Amino acid sequence: MKQTKQFFDLAIALAAIGEDLHRRGWVPATSGNFSQRLDEHSAIVTASGRHKGRLAPTDFLAVDLNGQPLSDGKPSAETLLHTQLYARFADIGAVLHCHSPSVTVLSRQISGNTLRLEGYELLKAFNGIDTHDTFVDIPIFENTQDIAALADEVDTYFNSHPNTPAYLIRGHGVYCWGEDLDSCMRNLEALDFLLQCDLQERMLTRK
Amino acid sequence: MKQTKQFFDLAIALAAIGEDLHRRGWVPATSGNFSQRLDEHSAIVTASGRHKGRLAPTDFLAVDLNGQPLSDGKPSAETLLHTQLYARFADIGAVLHCHSPSVTVLSRQISGNTLRLEGYELLKAFNGIDTHDTFVDIPIFENTQDIAALADEVDTYFNSHPNTPAYLIRGHGVYCWGEDLDSCMRNLEALDFLLQCDLQERMLTRK
Amino acid sequence: MKQTKQFFDLAIALAAIGEDLHRRGWVPATSGNFSQRLDEHSAIVTASGRHKGRLAPTDFLAVDLNGQPLSDGKPSAETLLHTQLYARFADIGAVLHCHSPSVTVLSRQISGNTLRLEGYELLKAFNGIDTHDTFVDIPIFENTQDIAALADEVDTYFNSHPNTPAYLIRGHGVYCWGEDLDSCMRNLEALDFLLQCDLQERMLTRK
Amino acid sequence: MKQTKQFFDLAIALAAIGEDLHRRGWVPATSGNFSQRLDEHSAIVTASGRHKGRLAPTDFLAVDLNGQPLSDGKPSAETLLHTQLYARFADIGAVLHCHSPSVTVLSRQISGNTLRLEGYELLKAFNGIDTHDTFVDIPIFENTQDIAALADEVDTYFNSHPNTPAYLIRGHGVYCWGEDLDSCMRNLEALDFLLQCDLQERMLTRK
Predict the structure, then answer these.
(1) What is the CATH number of the domain that holds B72?
(2) Confidence bin at B35 (pLDDT 50/70/90)
(3) Which chain A residues are Cβ-neighbours of D132 within 8 angstroms?
(4) Engineering a disulfide at B107: which of B54, B64, B168, D203 sits with its beta carbon 3.0 to 4.6 angstroms away?
């Protein structure tokens, strides 16, 4: 597969996001991975093990929606968690996975499999929410090194919860998506802000 | 209405403030909105839904002091909360609304409708305060999607508390103002600093 | 008094420090003030009420060591707390006063008039300390708007504690000094780091 | 010893890391020291007492693996802790020592001599770890001003724990290493992230 101008444009936009996320401390130690949809059947995704704060177009490769490489390089081990989102939801254009301290700490502190965010004005940042007077449930999946099994588990969850804006993997990180990179980043920023608030509220109340 | 040099100058100054506030994490996920007075009868205000860290002059529009657009575009849903301040207080030149973690967390943790800040030297940043040996009460209003009703409630509050330097909306954010953009920003910076201190003191004492 | 090249050089160095301290959040809302010694009888000090993150040479003035202006402008209200240090200690070349959250919170939380820092390797940043196996006592003075009275109180304290590296004013801020601006900044950075550690330790242990 | 192009390249790379670490607040008040291997018998190391956020090539010197200077200048007092690592492990190319708040606070809070990090996905950043379902023990040595004695103690520890990725010195800081500067920095970033998470978890649970 030839690397087109589209490939480079998408890569450069993800590299800029990577620089921003690294400065925030959300992709420490080469963690995290990013992708954008190329077309109905493929996406670009970060190659395995790269520093996410200084990505170049050569740090990305094209994959099909089963996560198989269409260009040179070794895709991130978690590629399937990206491509399942593009395969299932036609309106998803970008997926970001990162590890912020809030995500890591909260996903370990909460013993159940759901984090409920309730009553915040900023919930309105998520699609389809037009009031603070509601709640959004963020699912927490157990961490595993068997990515195919986790992808299946996530897929089953979507059957009953198609409007989920993001999910956490316990002690690991967050997956977040959007119709394009700007809306994906808006979702991620809203989610992490709400998790930071929730974490501080727990420190105040030991709830 | 023609977009004058004044309009562009005010927009560019607000865009610079937006970049600063975004870097601080106080306007996550397109939240927040900013305005400055144009003249006795109008103000410029951010358009609805824009990223507050990278505003351009085209992301602003002129409104009258009832919040009705005087130039193209859809004003922020909370425009009325800005214009009521310009309409009521002739010496207000700038209004900033943002969502910092401290504002969000504290406004949810405090069950009453007032946050009292007492004994801090930095209280002197607020107009009319010349000693640390005093207190300032910041009102907390319940959040609502009915902005006109909230504007009325705020207006009634000002009847009995004309010297209030800012107010909080529960689980939502802060409104802050000043005679010009510099003094508005000084008030906002002082307020958020004091809220951060108060939050840390609560973590130490579980007060 | 003519504003010499020395005056401008000292002002420009302090302006650069101001930009750094503002970025750290230690001089919110025009708080803080800075000075450097000009000669045996005079110093330059920030003018009253300026934004400490964007100082220009015109935001400084020369004062004698009683705090009286030698050039145009209104010196900071706390000028006397700077000049008493230059008058008393011939080897002091720079004084920084700022308001960090750690300073503000800890000085309010501690009920006594001393903060003891003990057992930290970083104590060695202070002059005359060459082991971690010691302690440094930082005095806390009550806040007051009577700066002359506070200067007297500080002066009396120095009679019995000449090696103090810094002092706190309750709910207000810190005064820190050094033989030149670099060593003053090193002391300030060490102190705030140690206060941040102490604050976090108190959050862990509620000591 | 002539200062070669290699010397300058290694110094410039360490200076860039120093700027980054200073911005993070991990090398306050001239603390910390950095090194890279020159060859089988020597390394470059930061000179004593320099500001770690603005290092120039003249702020480094060459030392042999007993810590003795091979070029002009006074090496950091802790040079031996760097050179023992190069002497013992042929595949170590870079060593970073710094003082972050998390390192300082946690090493004082934990009464034992080990900090166990368990169940985090980010453990995989350390060499030889390929699952979250494990733990890594970070040793904590008592602080001392007798660097030769500490070097001996560390050396003895390595006899039984050759795969340790880093160690803490109580109330002092962390030593971290890697085959080259990038992998050393990846280890340090991973470690500090995990310590930040652990610290926040302790604040939530008072464990």
Answers:
(1) 3.40.225.10
(2) very high
(3) 143, 145, 171-172
(4) B168
Chain B environment of A187 (Cβ under 8 Å): 29
From residue C55, give the alpha-carbon distance in Å to each of B187, C11, C33, C67. Answer: 19, 8, 11, 20
pLDDT in tens, chain D (207 residues): 556 899 999 999 999 999 999 999 999 999 999 999 999 999 999 999 999 999 999 999 999 999 999 988 889 889 999 999 999 999 999 999 999 999 999 999 999 999 999 999 999 999 999 999 999 999 999 999 999 999 999 999 999 999 999 999 999 999 999 999 999 999 999 999 999 999 999 999 865
Helices first, then strands: H and E counts in chain C: 5, 8
CA angle D89, D155, D75 (to 5 degrees): 75
Q: Which residues of D are part of a known binding site for Zn(2+)?
A: 97, 99
Q: Which residues of B touch C109 (CB under 8 A)?
A: 201, 204-205
Q: What is the largest CA-CA distance in chain A?
A: 56
Report residue B80 as tokens. Answer: 């009325």
Binding site, annotated residues of B for Zn(2+): 97, 99
Q: Does the annotation place A41 within a ligand binding site?
A: no
pLDDT of residue D91: 97
Is 0.90 surpassed by the pTM of this model?
yes
Determine the straight-line distance between the first and last CA of chain D, rounded to whole angstroms. 53
Give the nearest partner residue to C197 out of D31, D104, D143, using CB atoms.
D104
Residue D128's domain spans which residues?
5-206
Q: Which of D24, D117, D122, D180 is the best mutation test for A, with the most CBs of A within 10 A?
A: D122
Chain A residues with CB under 8 Å of B171 CB are: 119-121, 132
ipTM of model over 0.90: yes
Alpha helices in B28-140 (DSSP H): 79-88, 101-109
A206 to chain D: closest CA residue? D204
Q: Cα–Cα–Cα angle for D178, D69, D66, nearest 5°?
A: 60
As for how many domains chain C has, the answer is 1
Q: Give CA–CA dist D24/D19, Å, rounded.
A: 9
**Minimal Cα distance from D130: which residue of A?**
A145
